[in-house]
Amino acid sequence: MSNKIGVIGCGWLGLPLAESLIEQDYEVNGTSTSEDKLAMLKEKGIVPFHILLSEDGIHGNIDEFLSSLSILVINIPPKLRGKGPKESYIAKIRLLHKVIKKSRVRKIIFASSTAVYGDAEGVVTEQTEPKPNTESGIQLLQCEELLKNDPELQTTIIRFGGLIGPNRHPVTMLSGRENLTGGDAPINLIHLDDCIGIIRTIIERQHFNDVLNAVYPAHPTKKEYYTKEALKRGIAAPQYTSTSGKTDKLITFCSPFLINKFKFLTTIN
Questions:
Q1: 186 φ, ψ to 5°?
Q2: Name one GO cellular component term (predicted).
Q3: N or C, where is the chain less crowded by C-beta within 10 Å?
Q4: C-alpha separations of 36 from 8, 27, 49, 50, 190 in Å
């Protein structure tokens, strides 16, 4: 197989991931749902493909995209929240799974979310049983199972915590809000740079057939953390009035891979 990596979804995470892999001398195929982005991808050294997944089919040359890959990174957000029409995420991944099976690709990295744990309380590790309570979490778990349970594929699932990084931080949406509960709950976040670092380390070490929680090891309270981040940005801090009245969820990892082989690059404090 070649030294080529495929990244489905060159967006907020996928684009800088692809650029980082190119810096490490990998060849990278990348997809976008927007034809307007293809020239930009090409300028950055990414082999661009205009591919759109829908419930009805895959539009674009997916066979060519997959043809020479050694590893495929699936980084497509479910987009099942908010207003407007929504398509079934699991239906899209089932279609993608079928074409992957027809290709030579056998190593998969699937970007999932800690949303699969739903309202779990206390310390949550990879051994905690997922009990999603949102449509996104439910369909993400279905996709995990589809890929993980295929014996012909070597799939590593990464359950990312809340994503932060350039132009993306929860405090901007929380700024100025009042009477918020759960101020004593721990944060479960991870920075873009660490997301990229974890994926790169999986590829470099060929670490497949695993499920990883990917969150920063420090867990200050929401009140402490978001107050500090608001002050740093010069915006109004959110105001918390009480705790949630339950045992708060603290997501951690016990995988030896993250404990022993990956060094977090970015502090969130």
A1: -75, 150
A2: cytoplasm
A3: C
A4: 16, 22, 11, 9, 30
Note whether 213 and 144 are within 8 A (CB).
no
Closest CA to 186 of 223, 241, 232, 132: 223
Amino acid at residue number 197: G
Residue 229 falls inside a structural domain: no
CA 175/CA 239 separation, integer angstroms: 9
Residue 223 φ/ψ, nearest 5 degrees: -60, -50
CA dist 53 and 55 (Å) reads 7
CATH for 109: 3.40.50.720
Q: Say if 106 falls within a structural domain.
A: yes
Q: Name the residue among 151, 162, 139 with its Cα closest to residue 225.
A: 162
Q: How many domains does the chain have?
A: 1
Question: How many of the other CB atoms lie within 10 Å of CB of 117?
Answer: 23
Is-above-0.90 flag for pTM?
Answer: yes
